[in-house]
Design brief:
Rossmann fold; 24% strand
């Protein structure tokens, strides 16, 4: 739990995890919001990559390349591959796709290390919502690269919510593609770590905020 606790404190200090009232893309009114968009400096994106790398080193050690879907997945894949090499002695390839096809020069739809038959890929992204982005990533990789397999999907934050059909999107993805999903932290771990605990002299998750989060999870959350 040590790096998880450090990660949660890193999120609140970076304001990547905020508490209040937020309208999500799904239309739900959430008492908290998570985004990797706040990691916009060299030091912060490297540190984010370190936490992804720590999870990968602990959970998924047999793989060859990290794939980050454009656009948000691109810096995640690069930063994580750098942290794996620097901090864990694991020199792995990174790969990402282009959303727009080039009609000049290198016309490949992919940039980075291209896997060869028999190699294993890790998918990387920020959160799991509907799983659509990840499904698209799996499909375009299978179309382009022959006989590759997937070692896992790693995400920073598991909101532990149902999708609009009432299903656990994470479990549905795992069942559909036979790809294990690992998260650095879950919303439940956030509650456990932050509830009434001071970070730099400030309590981010007091009793009232916890109650709002519990009410939200009772309505939209998945079974633990």
């Amino acid at each position: 739990m040590s790096y998880k606790k450090d990660f949660i404190e890193f999120l609140v200090r970076s304001e990547a995890l905020k508490f209040g009232e937020f309208t999500l893309k799904s239309g739900r009114i959430s008492p908290y919001f998570f985004t990797t968009g706040n990691f916009n400096t060299g030091s912060s994106i490297y540190k984010l990559g370190y936490f992804y790398a720590a999870l990968i080193r602990e959970e998924v050690v047999d793989f060859d390349v990290i794939f980050g879907p454009a656009y948000k997945g691109i810096p995640l894949a690069v930063a994580t591959s750098m942290a794996l090499a620097k901090d864990f002695g694991m020199d792995k390839g990174y790969l990402f796709d282009r959303k727009e096809v080039k009609d000049y020069g290198d016309k490949s739809a992919f940039v980075g290390y291209e896997p060869t038959p028999g190699q294993k890929i890790i998918l990387i992204d920020d959160v799991m919502t509907t799983g659509k982005t990840k499904e698209d990533a799996v499909n375009i990789i299978k179309e382009k690269f022959e006989n590759v397999s997937f070692a896992g999907l790693v995400i920073a934050f598991n909101r532990q919510e149902k999708d609009n059909d009432g299903n656990d999107a994470l479990l549905e993805f795992e069942k559909s593609f036979d790809i294990p999903v690992k998260a650095i932290v879950t919303v439940r771990e956030v509650i456990d770590v932050l509830h009434n605990q001071k970070i730099d002299g400030q309590i981010y998750l007091d009793d009232a905020t916890k109650d709002r989060m519990e009410e939200y999870l009772a309505r939209y959350g998945v079974s633990q």
